[in-house]
Amino acid sequence: MTATLPKKSSAPPRAGRDAPHRRRRGPSAYAVLVALAAFAGVMLIPFVVVVFNALKTPEELTSHGPLSPPDGFNLDTMRAFWERTDFGHVLLNSVLISGSVAVLAVLLSVLNAYALGIGRIKGRMWVLVLLLMANTVPQEALVYPLYYLSKQVGLYDTRLSVIIVFTVIQSAFGTYLMASVLSAFPRPLLEAARIDGAGRWQVLWRVVVPVVRPTLSVLLVFFFVWTWNEFLIPMTFLISNENQTVSVALGVLHGQKLMDTTMSSAASLLGLLPTVVFFLIFQRTLSRGLTAGAIK
Asked: Residue 119 carries which DSSP code?
């Protein structure tokens, strides 16, 4: 006798349980997407107008108005503004100050938050309350004490003075945020590292920092952009042309010399482009950092 093997069924899988479940978007989801796209378009209108006016000549602006597109790709206005303000040197100052503040403020925030969130030092709650109150103090109230102190220590009109001031200001917010994150840090990871013989510094750099790296990346981007856009303190501390930042150079030029609309638009565009490029480069890092806390 010969045994017959059962034939494989060639019937397609049932559409119920066997077929993969695909979630279909309803009309409400498409309505939300259309609304968000429209909102993004409205938000981009000022930027588009600035680009149009920066690429125009004064004659085009007078004849066609500020809302019309330019007739050509004119870079003479940008070139004139670049040469008038030595924008390359000013741009380097802003990159140096903002980058230094971002790195130093993140480092200081991690060290402070490690002591507050994981070390659980005495008076932790009062320190966090003090940091929260420091974030609410307006910069106008800090200008004169910081100005007097920088004069006394010989740091006035130096980039180092602005770096120190903004490092402390930004790290106050960073410490408050990171302390809240590290207070909920998984204790089994810390205990396992200590059982393996890791010291406090090894626990910080080999266990804590890799876990909270997405949050640190978000703080790095925010600190860079916030410092780049600061105006009051750099204007007070950096009075010489060779130390000025982009925001101060734009403000001083508007106050001292007569500028037409095309020149103002060119200056605004050149001051805005570095932050836009920086944000686009770190956009993926920023989105990952914002969503890292919601996924385990």
From this structure: S
Q: How far is Cα 179 from Cα 120, in angstroms, rounded to an integer?
A: 10
Max CA separation in the chain (angstroms):
107
Say how far apart CA 131 and CA 58 lie, in whole Å. Answer: 50
Q: Which pLDDT belongs to residue 23? A: 61
Q: Which CATH architecture has domain 87-292?
A: Orthogonal Bundle (1.10)
Per-residue pLDDT, 117: 82
182: nearest Cα among 133, 241, 244, 112: 112
Beta-carbon contacts of residue 166 (< 8 Å; ≥ 6 apart): 97, 101, 105, 227, 230, 233
Domain edges within the chain: 29-64, 87-292
List of the chain residues with pLDDT < 50 = 1-6, 8, 15-20, 293-296
Distance between CA atoms of 231 and 229, rounded to whole angstroms?
Answer: 6
Q: What Rg value do the Cα atoms of the chain yield, rounded?
A: 27
What confidence tens digit (pLDDT) does each residue in 213-236 have?
888 988 998 999 999 999 999 999
* DSSP-derived secondary structure letter, 72: S
Angle at 146 between CA 144 and CA 147, to 5 degrees: 60
**Do 178 and 111 touch, CB atoms closer than 8 A?**
no
For residues 104 and 98, give the distance between their C-alpha atoms in angstroms, rounded to a whole number: 10
234, amino acid identity? P
Q: Do the Cβ atoms of 177 and 117 come closer than 8 Å?
A: no
User: CB-based contacts of 123: which residues, under 8 Å, 6+ apart?
Assistant: none
Q: In whole angstroms, how far apart are CA 203 and each of 60, 210, 296?
A: 63, 10, 21
pLDDT score at 245:
92
Nearest in space to 172 (alpha carbons), one of 130, 226, 222 = 130
Say what the pLDDT of residue 155 is.
Answer: 92
